[in-house]
Design brief:
The protein is α+β, with helices and mostly antiparallel strands. It has 14 helices and six strands. Strands 1, 2, 3, 4, 5 and 6 form a six-stranded antiparallel beta sheet that branches.
């Protein structure tokens, strides 16, 4: 089932990308009858798949996420309204599907950073909007008699205020009074500082998040893991080349009870929960998944992410290769598996 979900998600992701490309290519063009028929059939086929996928996700996730709500709106618009082509908004679903690809890591990290810092950004924008109102009112009183067509009311003055505070300066409206020019100059300098503030908040938070998701695993980090601490440097180097880093969000299921044991996982940061009768929480430096590999059995418990975690995944094939070369590692794993199963 897991394999089917992975390939199905990848198929949906590529289909979304094709739909975005299709939407761009056909915009503003008159198609021949044959191409128009082909285009309509492609859209009909795509939305048939999209409807099935959304229903499948509703039954699987049993909750309404932001992405799911966007997808429902896009599909509802196509089926019942069809005023605008909203397929472009499904690109966020494609980002979610391919979130583990290294090439998309910065993009997904930036989107998550914006969401996490939304209150801080909103706070700075409230200050900016307050300054905009004050500046617009002042410039309105100074210029309304000199240029009633441009500054006759506060709403018209706000257009000039936005262009000034953002330092865009279209030049279609300019003050003529000396005091108006002076205040506008002050507003330009203030605007630079005010719009730099949310940029600084985002840049700082983004850098912190991107460092957490750094996919380079150092040899020093591996030697700090108890499981590998007594191995020779040659083994550490080999392990380093075989580890696959994964960054997973909170509440994501890593594997379920009854799944085939296919890998060992090591926690670099964050925490996971072993869902047994008395739940067990594992944190940084802990590892799990070795019991099924050693005993050649199915997973005996479901494990999910408690708080965002970076895991180092070692596949069964890579682990078998290491166990042949370093029997001491096998003994440690066997002892650990025996302790956990009692």
């Amino acid at each position: 089932m897991k394999v089917f979900e992975k390939y199905f998600d990848d198929f949906i992701g590529y289909l979304i990308i094709l739909n975005v490309i299709h939407q761009i290519l056909i915009s503003g063009y008159s198609l021949s009858d044959n191409l128009l028929t082909l285009s309509e059939n492609f859209i009909l086929f795509s939305f048939g798949i999209f409807v099935f996928e959304v229903i499948f996700r509703i039954f699987k996730e049993r909750k309404f996420s932001t992405l799911l709500l966007i997808d429902i709106i896009v599909i509802f618009n196509y089926l019942f309204i069809s005023v605008f082509d909203l397929r472009i908004f499904r690109i966020f679903r494609a980002y979610s599907i391919f979130s583990q690809l290294r090439v998309l890591l910065p993009t997904n990290t930036l989107l998550k950073t914006i969401w996490k810092q939304r209150l801080s950004i909103l706070g700075t924008q409230i200050v900016v909007f307050s300054l905009l109102l004050i500046f617009s009112v002042v410039i309105h009183f100074l210029e309304k008699d000199l240029q009633p067509e441009a500054f006759g009311n506060i709403l018209d003055s706000m257009w000039y205020g936005i262009a000034t505070l953002t330092t865009v300066g279209y030049g279609d409206v300019t003050p003529v009074s000396d005091l108006g020019k002076l205040i506008s100059s002050f507003a330009m300098f203030l605007g630079i500082a005010m719009f730099a503030l949310p940029a600084a908040i985002l840049a700082s938070a983004y850098y912190e998040d991107i460092q957490k998701r750094n996919f380079l695993v150092s040899l020093e980090a591996i030697t700090e893991i108890n499981l590998f601490s007594n191995l020779p440097i040659g083994a550490i180097t080999k392990i380093n080349s075989k580890l696959e880093p994964l960054v997973l969000p909170a509440k994501q299921v890593i594997f379920k009870k009854g799944d085939i044991a296919d890998a060992l996982y090591i926690i670099e940061f964050g925490s996971v929960q072993v869902e047994i009768e008395t739940p067990v929480v594992l944190g940084s430096g802990d590892y799990f998944g070795e019991t099924g590999l050693i005993s050649q059995a199915e997973r005996n418990a479901t494990i999910s992410v408690l708080e965002e975690a970076k895991l180092l995944k070692l596949s069964k094939e890579s682990l078998d290769e290491l166990l042949e070369e370093y029997p001491a590692l096998f003994e440690d794993l066997k002892r650990s598996a025996a302790d956990r199963t009692g």
